[in-house]
Every structure is written in structure tokens, then in C-alpha cells.
Write a structure and sequence with these properties.
Helices cover 0% and strands 55% of the residues. The chain has no helices and eleven strands.
Length: 121
């Protein structure tokens, strides 16, 4: 069974930085797509950043130029470097992987449990 575990959340002042990590464990043949989502209280979950197996990155307009998504293929990990944080970045952040457990199984979507990021003075 595949499990995703996020870490790195916490409380930070406006203008500060945090680095989120997400590690996948279990049987994994290949990872096709990695992404970070967030959900603020009372809002729907939204895509923050994504990274394909080919290296293509995509960012929400609200974080463009401030956040950077990266991956470590050898460790099955994805990171989100968040700089110049604003109070409106406060949310629970989730990682999402689209992957194959075995070579001939279909792609499956897996989510982490979420990590809280609070930006406040």
C-alpha cells in the first residue's frame, strides 16, 4: 500500500519561508505526476503547484514567483519551497502523487494527510 507523508508545516511570520516535504513509501513502479494542493478554512481545495515526470512545472497565479516545486526521484519525494509568505497562504497543504504500483497496473491517485501552514505575525 502506498502512503504519502508530509512534513515541514508550521507557524511563520509574513515574509518568511517554509519548505514542505512529501515522502512516498510502499510499492511504487513509477511516478507520473506530483502536486501540492491547499485548502484554507471555508474554501475548496486548490492546486498550488505541479510537476510532471518530464519536468514541466505549473503554478497557481497566486504563488508564481514565490513558490518552487522540486522532486528527488531516488527518494520518491516532492518538495515545496515557499518564500515571501503571506497571511493568505495560510491553509492545510496536501501532496498528491499519480503513480503506478506495478508496471501493468493503471495509474492511481494518492494523497497525503496534510500539513498546516499558518502565516501570521
Amino acid at each position: 500500500q502506498v502512503q504519502l507523508v508530509e512534513s515541514g508545516g508550521g507557524l511563520v511570520q509574513p515574509g518568511g519561508s517554509l519548505r514542505l516535504s512529501c515522502a512516498a513509501s510502499g510499492t511504487i513502479f513509477s511516478i507520473d505526476f506530483m502536486a501540492w494542493y491547499r485548502q484554507a478554512r471555508g474554501n475548496e481545495r486548490e492546486l498550488v503547484a505541479s510537476l510532471t515526470s518530464g519536468g514541466a512545472r505549473n503554478y497557481a497565479d497566486s504563488v508564481q514567483g514565490r513558490f518552487t516545486i522540486s522532486r528527488d526521484n531516488a527518494k520518491n519525494m516532492v518538495y515545496l519551497q515557499m518564500n515571501s509568505l503571506k497571511p493568505e497562504d495560510t491553509a492545510v497543504y496536501y501532496c498528491r502523487f499519480t503513480l503506478k504500483v506495478y508496471k501493468y497496473t493503471p495509474l492511481g491517485i494518492y494523497w497525503g494527510q496534510g500539513t498546516q501552514v499558518t502565516v501570521s505575525s
